[in-house]
Amino acid sequence: MNWKSILVHLDNSRRCDARTRLAFDIASRFDAHVIGLYLVCQDLLHHVFDPSDRLQHEAYAEQRRAALEKARDTFEHAARLAGVSAEWRAPGSPVFDAATLHGRHADVIVLGQDDPDDPAAFVALHFVEDVVISVGRPVLIVPRAGDIPTFGENVLIGWDDSREAARAVFDALPILRRARFIEVATVERHRYEEAPAGIEISAYLDRQGVRASFSSTPRIRGENTGMTLVDKASSAHADLLVAGAYAHSRGLERVLGGVTRALLEMSPLPVLLSH
């Protein structure tokens, strides 16, 4: 099994190019097709316009058209340079509906991490997490800053014996089969609590032709499990973190903080999430 269809979210943000480059890099490995899905915040400024000011509305519409055409030209030019099969889509439907509809016909979806310092990166409230939990496909989150010199060579798998973690490992197999180093990491949540056994998942991977080491890491005091995994990935010089998303209630994670939220908001390296 390989990824043959990759969907990448396009917009006018400063990290759009980084997402596009990564999508094309992955596509070149698997001889895959890339779908560039242009989705931006709809009617972000309409509420501040005078409804009777036609010229103001026309200027705003022209600005959006120009931004769309620039994004399209940039994407198609990059596709030609990469020598990758690609197509552009810019649906007019609500952004979440469009993302889930088109995403369900792709093998993996490439999204950007939320960036509060870049207004152009805002699509909709909870856009990324809503897509992760609803689309039924693995979602690759590209960090809001930093270079991505390598991808999928040194992989850390966050394992907790959950359904979501098992799904993530299966979804990541195309990358894992090509990785040079893989570590299955579990996190001990309390001193008196045993960490989930990662030996069985390591054995499963071995039967898939994937060699992985196994480690158990105590949770760092003052950090949740998500941040402990991020720290572990950084210390291992991983260039991809694979994890299940929302093994617990999303509402509870929003209130108390949780693994998925930490990975979505804080990870400095790409994260592959499955729900």
From TrEMBL:
Matches recorded under Pfam families: Usp
Gene3D superfamilies attached to this UniProt entry: 3.40.50.12370
Family: Belongs to the universal stress protein A family.
CDD domains attached to this UniProt entry: USP-like
PANTHER family registered for this protein in UniProt: STRESS RESPONSE PROTEIN NHAX, UNIVERSAL STRESS PROTEIN HP_0031
UspA domain sequence ranges: 3-143, 154-273
Domain of life: Bacteria
Protein name: Universal stress protein family protein
